[in-house]
Automatic annotation (TrEMBL):
<dbReference type="InterPro" id="IPR016162">
    <property type="entry name" value="Ald_DH_N"/>
</dbReference>
<comment type="similarity">
    <text>Belongs to the aldehyde dehydrogenase family.</text>
</comment>
<protein>
    <submittedName>
        <fullName>Aldehyde dehydrogenase</fullName>
    </submittedName>
</protein>
<dbReference type="InterPro" id="IPR016161">
    <property type="entry name" value="Ald_DH/histidinol_DH"/>
</dbReference>
<dbReference type="GO" id="GO:0016620">
    <property type="term" value="F:oxidoreductase activity, acting on the aldehyde or oxo group of donors, NAD or NADP as acceptor"/>
</dbReference>
<feature type="domain" description="Aldehyde dehydrogenase">
    <location>
        <begin position="41"/>
        <end position="492"/>
    </location>
</feature>
<dbReference type="InterPro" id="IPR029510">
    <property type="entry name" value="Ald_DH_CS_GLU"/>
</dbReference>
<keyword id="KW-0560">Oxidoreductase</keyword>
<keyword id="KW-0520">NAD</keyword>
<dbReference type="InterPro" id="IPR016163">
    <property type="entry name" value="Ald_DH_C"/>
</dbReference>
<dbReference type="InterPro" id="IPR015590">
    <property type="entry name" value="Aldehyde_DH_dom"/>
</dbReference>
<dbReference type="InterPro" id="IPR016160">
    <property type="entry name" value="Ald_DH_CS_CYS"/>
</dbReference>
<dbReference type="Pfam" id="PF00171">
    <property type="entry name" value="Aldedh"/>
</dbReference>
<feature type="active site">
    <location>
        <position position="273"/>
    </location>
</feature>
Amino acid sequence: SSSLHANLWQCNTLEKARQYLAGSRDSPLILQNYISDTYTSSSQYIDSFNPQTGALYAKVPLSTPQDVDHAVLSAEKAFKSWSKTTRIERSKYLQKISRLVEENRELFAVWESIDQGKTLERARTEVDRAVSNFSYFSTYILHEGSSVRLIDGVALTYEHRSPAGVFALISPWNMPLYLLTWKIAPCLAFGCTAVAKPSEVTSMTAFLLAEVIRQAELPAGVLNIVLGNGATTGSALVKHPRVKGISFTGGTATGIQIRRDTAGDIYKHLSLELGGKNPTLVFDDVDMQKAVATAAMAAFENQGEICLCGSRIYVQATIYEEFIQQFTSFVGEHYKIREKVGAVVSLQHYQKIQSYLLLAEKEGGTFHLGSIPPESPNKGYWIEPTILTGISIDSRVMMEEIFGPVVTIAPFQNEEEAIELANDNPNGLASVLLTRDGARMRRVGERIEAGLIWVNCWLVRELGTPFGGMKNSGTGREGGSYSRDVFTNLRTLHLPS
Ligand code: NAD
């Protein structure tokens, strides 16, 4: 096992982690891959920075196509026996993993916060969700069955599923452990094996998870964790001929690239959860205080770095001025940087957000809160929550995903215009609808082009409901039986009666 793990396992409070990092200032932590049941080193590394301080703190392996091949073959070998285990056996492993993550909640939360920039409080909720990802699928598989149908009194049919094989599980940097386990848990539960690759920007909690996998004594090769970037590591993984499916969460451009790279491999199952630029619609019949609080949470939770964040707020003209005033004062009071709003994930991302703010200024937008952050931050990548109005509807600021603590507000006159504005975007992941009119909830909700609509709430999740987007926000759905569809092959048997 890795000696780094032995040290990290002692760092289960922020204080201890900070002391440990202070002691290793001149020698960053060197992460490793976990392939078969062995930690392996790499010949090349990627620098990983602490977003809250800007300090280099870890080195992430830049795994080569050979490393990827090694991991895929290990997963393929393990598939032979793992795919034949009973549901009860797999359930027990998942429960064990779930328990181990839960027991190490603070360890995972502390390092997620250090690695990603999010607040510790936010990180804790995401670790809790990672625990539920494992416990949910550990029980889900125990309650499944297939129904038998009789056709015209002459034949019986039934559906039979089998695990599809080795999967590539690829996740982004915004909710690292939560999103990777959302793939790992169903993948293993439905009898597949995996090579998981977290984002090169945030690989720390995947590295910690490898140790949990080892402690849970999961059979060798069932879950391999390979670290590296997209161009070299991710690309080799999705193109690998022995990989039978890809569950990917990340940006739309990468999703398009993966589709291209696998265009000839019809056999590959593809589930793509991509970007969003989600609208929040505020009608004039709302309870203003509640509407403001929900819209603010949807905009600024996790610094706006959630694919589901509502970054375009449209408000009915009759309450437009009042909403701007109350929203601005609420956000100013409740979304304080460092307390509730963390640092953005990387210097590159900081600069991307900054470029949109410069564009907003150039286009004559009004900043109700926030301002242009300095070009080169000297201590961490901090961006104040920013509220903009006066941005034209076809501006890139309005059309493109900024993925930071930035929100635009614009008015609408009536329901029809609200729907038009909401749908006037190439993405279609999520939407928030704020109104007290029950008929309108359905009338408008059923016309918004988004995979997920939240009415008077946001981010409410039940893990059996379908999760995913329309339009450029992705293909396929995950969650409960929808995840089962991703990870299994379906055959229909016809028997004479
Ligand atoms: P990204 O697309 O740059 O990277 C995502 C992952 O893909 C990383 O692990 C990366 O290394 C890998 N990758 C990059 N190029 C690859 C390639 N050619 N082949 C294979 N793998 C490759 O996204 P990001 O910047 O890490 O994350 C932010 C994006 O993720 C945002 O657009 C956000 O909306 C989206 N997101 C979507 C959801 C959802 O559920 N729909 C959830 C969270 C984030």
